[in-house]
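subagent[fold] <- orchestrator: predict structure for attached chain, return C-alpha cells only, no commentary.
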Amino acid sequence: MTSERVYHHGDLRRALIAAALDVIATEGPGALSLRDLARRAGVSHAAPAHHFKDRTGLLTAVAAEGYGMFADALADAGDLRERGVAYLRFATGHPAHFQVMFRPELHHPDDPALVAAKARANETLRTGVSGLSGTDRGGDDRLAGIAAWSLAHGYATLLLSGNLDAPVGNRDPEEVFRALAGLLFPTDPATTPESS
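subagent[fold] -> orchestrator:
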C-alpha cells in the first residue's frame, strides 16, 4: 500500500462533511457524490458509506449541523432586526449549509439529529418573533412569524444569488436589512421603549 492511500484523518466523518461543504459551496448540492468525496479524502470509495450510508445521509448530516449552528447564531441576537441580521450573517457565512438546510428533498426528514436541530432552530426563531403581531393590530403571531422569516430568508437568498447587487449597491447589506425590517415591522416589541 502506498503512503498516498494511508488513512490520515483523525475524524473521517468531519473530513467528509468539510469536503462536501466545499463541493456544495462551489458547485451546488447536485454535484455531490460519495465516490468523489472518498477520492478527495484518500480513502476507499466504500468508506463514506460507513458514516452516512448514502448521499442523502451525508446531506442530512450537513443540514443537521447547519440547523445547530443556525440556532446558536440566532440565540445571541436581541430584537427582531438583529435576529434578521444574524440570519443574514449565517447565510452569507455558511452558504453551503444554507443551501442544503431549506431543501427538504435532500435529506432524511425523520433523522433524529436533524429533527432535534431543526426543532431548536425553529424554537429560536419563534422566540424572536413572539408577540410581534401585537394585539393592537389584531395580528396573528404565526402569520407575523412567517412574514419575518420570509423577509430574512428571502433577503438572504436574493443577496447570495447576486440578485441584490444593483439595488443594494455598495451599501452595507446588514443596514439595508435593518431598514427593510423597520419598514415592514415598525413596532418591533423588543425595541419599543416601555412606558413609565
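orchestrator: received. Logging for downstream: The chain has a mean pLDDT of 84. The chain has two domains: 1-52, 62-184.
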